[in-house]
User: What shape does this take?
Amino acid sequence: MTTRALCGWFSGAVIIACLTVAATLLNAQAGAPNGEWKTYGADLSNTHYSALDQIKADNFNRLQIAWRFKTDNLGPRPEFRFESTPLMANGVLYSTAGSRRDVIALDPATGELLWSHREDEGARAAASPRALSGRGLAYWTDGKDERIIYVTIGYRLVSLDAKTGTRVSTFGQDGLVDMKTFAVMGNGQPIDLVKGEIGTHTAPAVTKSGVILVGSAFLAGGRPKTHVNTKGMVLAFDIHTGKKLWQFHTIPEPGEYGNETWLKDSWAFNGNTGSWGQISVDEDLGLAYLPIEMPTGDYYGGHRPGNGLFGETLVAVDLKTGKRKWHYQLVAPRYLGQRHSLRADAAGPHDQRQDSEGGRAADEAVLPLRVRSSDGNAHLADRGDARA
Assistant: This one.
């Protein structure tokens, strides 16, 4: 029996709490390995699973708070919606925190602050559609270097040395990449770098091979000021240099797959189709799974005739090139009164399905992919080819 601190965040609170419990240590067999939590969803498949079983029904009432870390002073005002998922990597706890989206590193045993980092973005952050600390950050290592990757409120990608919290000078421009420079609206017009509407609150996905994936988000689409809004995109960057590897346009441009589904050239004067859900990755298949939301706006589609790919769609893209491999559109956005948000989990080990219909051989291996939408529906597809 070994006593060990178990750390977690309490939803809606501005504290980090660590709980102590006596239990036998077990090695995780799936999901997060070795008792650590090195990516937002436990792993790049977003299984949200750890095999640790120290907290059980018969000892839960004996848990005690070991320490608290208050985030009230991280930013000009206390945060009122604290949603970050901390990462546990090599004995250090990392998270975004506070209303200015600071990055903090803590000793998980004591709660001691090891280092903190902040970017004061002024008017740029004030204009962001996604404020506060967001949902977290990413950790990456090649066994030698350790990096913390996160996106600021003002939509800049930052690479930090995980040991010191200082920016990695060889990444982008002194540790920063301004992702607003890749965003456009209308028929390709650049957005304003301060007031232009784009941001994200989700954690980047970072592969073992060093590919950083970042989505995009906008203001809630219930009552948009205009349908001529910033267009959604997903960007990929090199972990070492910050160089952009590829860009996926969620509203396809002329010559790209799906552009013809925007009738009457409506692709040129519509926006949104953000990818603000967590991106999943299957590195064995070389695919990234992009959950994409509605075009502008959520409840009226009269100005966007056609099926409007890739609105309301899960898209699998080649991890190296960003090219579409397959897509699965849940609802054609032309239909009025439809609003969903998508989440994709490249779930579990290889399963076997007893099904000889639909072109499948009996006992053919199936790689399950869960697709969940905010209207309460769930879908299961083969993540290799999207067959349901």
Summary: The longest strand covers residues 15-23. The mean pLDDT is 85.
